[in-house]
Amino acid sequence: MRDHSNRSAGRPTLEEVASRAGVGRGTVSRVVNGSAQVSPKARKAVQDAIDELGYVPNRAARALVTQRTDSIALVVFESGERFFAEPFFGRIVQSVSSVLVARNLQMVLMIAQAPEERRQLEGYLTRQHVDGALLLSVHGDDPLPAVLEERGLPTVRAGRPAHPGPVSFVDADNRGGARSAVSYLQEQGRRCIATITGPMDTAPGVARYQGYRDVVGDGPAAAGDFGEISGAMAMEWLLTNYPQLDAVFAASDMMAAGALRVLRRAGRRVPEDVAVVGFDDSVIARHTDPPLTSVFQPVEQMGQEMVRLLLAKLDGDEPTEHETVMPTRLILRGSA
């Protein structure tokens, strides 16, 4: 164990670290800023001195040298209510945070949906408070991502943009996952397969509906917003208008959970009368009654890849346009 009794009374300075390590001030600065132009012996001496003195680099001074804030924004284009209710967001925040912490970077979480929130967010992000931004749940032709890029802030999105352009994004194979789920229902002999869609101004909502249509065509469809209440309301509408339905593909586990509740209340047995499949393979899928068959998407890996792409862009190692689409797979449980 190191003896810390010789630490200075005030905040240790760069000069004190250099003196303790027996090197020049410039060498200490290079070690603190992560430069490779330092010998292993000198680096160890500086790191030992930093530990002994309890030196903490001055972030403002370091930013002047590196032109970096060491902060990354994670921007969620949803209401706070939805952010805290949907498991997807918690999983991806945890994933992103773990990667950034390992790189000694700070995560700035920003939730913005209302116009005033958006104005504040835009001002904050374009005043050099962060080095880059990860964008979640972008709706439709939202102009903010393009504005941020035009003002020089590197960004990476979760989800394919509505229109092709010079952007970087990470996505799951939403269309392929939905297609496999609906194909499975059809192979099990289901003849009237309905769907509860996600919001059609989001990339996952559109892609999952396209995957459904790849198999069924213009089948029974009701709109949802990925939330449980919308799933229940959509299921009620489907039962009223298509009482003969014998299967439902819901574009999220939360909507599927709402649909299960309505089916139970209506006296429809799952899966005997109506099979139900969700999307996400979230913790909800394992706790519904019966447990929910669902399409797994690699949320944690998506978050990690978003961070990797953004940091590569910051280092100049990645082009401005890069797309990564990760595979999905169907997880079978009792509901189908």
From TrEMBL:
Region (Disordered): 1-22
Domain HTH lacI-type: 12-66
Domain of life of the native organism: Bacteria
SMART domains: HTH_LACI (SM00354)
GO molecular function term, any single one: DNA-binding transcription factor activity
Keywords, sorted A to Z: DNA-binding, Transcription, Transcription regulation
SUPFAM superfamilies hit by this protein: lambda repressor-like DNA-binding domains, Periplasmic binding protein-like I
Name of the protein in its database record: DNA-binding LacI/PurR family transcriptional regulator
